[in-house]
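User:
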Amino acid sequence: MEREELILIQVENISKRYGKRIAVEDLSFSVEKGKIYGFLGPNGAGKSTTMNIMTGYTAASSGTVKINGFDILKDAKKAKQCIGYLPEIPPLYADMTVWEFLLFVAELKGVPRKKRTEQIGEILVKVQLEDVEGRLIRNLSKGYKQRVGLAQALVGYPEVLILDEPMVGLDPKQILEMRDLLRELASEHTILLSSHILSEVSAVCDHIMIISKGRMAASGSPEELQEMMQTKTELVVTVLGEKEQVEKVLQGIDAISSYAFEPAEEADSVSLRLSTREHVDIRKELSVALAGEGMPVLSMNRLEKSLEDIFLELTGDAADEEEACETDDAFGDVTAFPDDLQEQVDKEADAEQNQETNGQAKGGDRQ
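Assistant: Predicted structure:
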């Protein structure tokens, strides 16, 4: 299969400006079918703005987004049919039961009436909500509410799931359950998720994109990012021997660029940390050289950069504060999803206000 046929989302040179401030600048990337993508960045980096543009809730100042070949603005209906979206704050109706809410979403998404009951039943089983389908959403725990939010994203069986902070606020057990659920869903959906929980992104995602100050800082698999950032080899070594003897061996290996001795925990041993000039593996050479001088190696550990190390190195001194416009967009999504939901909410709000006004008027008449 050609690579072009595998690409499900194509983002090309998108930028978003709020007055003089640039939230996203000339950002491009593609998302292939059948993978889990992680979208990382510090607060204010432009993650939520990018997701809002991808889902059609915010228009880009420039650039294009295509979902399964459909332009998110020019062919909005067809493009959005391919997307299931879970905002950071799930768009839930607290006074509905789980079943009523999903049935409502199925109607809004245009799921055929004959298929709604069967599809909702399948989704409830998939996200493990069948035991609470008759309960009011307001009475559910944070973990269950997050599952309801994920369930509404699955209604209509979209090809792409875009999840904004799906694990925020969950306890460790719920995070593990959500991780397993995402892996299961990946067999049928392409998933793009943003998260601040870097360990979870590393554990779940096939591909990671790191954004900083509205630009793409790095993109690749966890292994590729580690290889890219690991420009040199660092070793922590403990040797049975004398410091002067060990130093003599180290000076004879050209690839070693620096070393420093550390306090040793074992008697008659020497501990040190060393770095190479390039990304080369000298463990075998070093072990043989030390053993040849009668100094057995007690331990040798290669230091690898974690995703947290890579993230901090790439994002540098990116702003820590939340960007007001980006936060406003995220909250706007709660009422903007799906397309007809805003109109429905407005109608209900007007009806409630009219009832309250009429009640006050009648009370005044009685007085």
